[in-house]
C-alpha cells in the first residue's frame, strides 16, 4: 500500500536546494482545492517516471509533441492521489510497455515544473505549474514499444547520458534529467 503523499513528502530527503524548496511548497499546495485535478488551473499534481532497464544502463524517453523534445514519461493525477499509480499508468500509456516494476514505492525526485500556455485538442491551456513527484521504474528493454500518437511521436531507449543530451529543454536537461542520472548512479 503506497504511503499517502503527505507522508511520502515528509519522509523524502531532498538532494539539493531545488528539491528542498520545491518539497516545502508541495506540502503547502496539498491544502489547496482541486490540487489533484486540472480544475485547479494554477497548479496541480502530476507524476513522472525515470524508466530504466534492469541493468540501469538505459533510460526510456518519449518524443513529446507539445514540447518538441525527448522527455520522461508522466502525466496528470486527474483525481488520483496515489502518484506512483499515476506514474505507472502514464508509462504504460505512453510507451506500450506492460512489464513495469517500481524500484521503490518511495519518491525518487520532486520538482515544481512550469508549463507555458499551449493548445491541446483545440483548446487553450493557460500557463500553470505541475507539482511533480517522480518515481524510479524498471522495465524490460526487450519489450516492444509503441507511441501514443496524441501525445508523443517517438519512444526510444538511450544511455543515461544520451537521454540528457536528447532533450532540447534547457531546464529539464540541466536541472532535472542530470539530477536524476546522478541519483541513479548512487541508488542502491
Distance between the termini: 22 Å
Helix vs. strand class: alpha+beta
Helix count? 5
Secondary structure: helix percent? 25-40%
Q: Over all CA atoms, what is the radius of gyration?
A: 15 Å
Low-confidence sequence ranges: none
Number of strands: 10
- Output the helix-strand order: HHEEEEHEEEEEEHH
Largest sheet: 8 strands, mixed
Shape: globular
Q: Overall pLDDT, averaged?
A: 95
β-strand amount: 25-35%
Structure description:
The chain has 188 residues and is α+β, with helices and mostly antiparallel strands. The chain is 30% helix and 31% strand. It is built from five helices and ten strands. β7 (118-120) and β8 (123-125) form a beta hairpin. The protein starts with a helix and ends with a helix.
Structure, briefly:
The chain has 188 residues and is an alpha+beta fold.
Observed structural traits:
188 residues, two-stranded antiparallel ribbon, alpha+beta, 30% helix, 10 strands, globular, eight-stranded mixed β-sheet, 5 helices
Present the secondary structure layout:
Blueprint: H1 5-11, H2 17-29, E1 43-52, E2 59-64, E3 69-71, E4 73-76, H3 83-95, E5 100-102, E6 109-115, E7 118-120, E8 123-125, E9 128-139, E10 152-158, H4 160-166, H5 170-186
Parallel strand pairs: 1-9
Antiparallel strand pairs: 1-2, 1-4, 2-3, 2-10, 5-9, 6-9, 7-8
Helix pairs in contact: 4-5
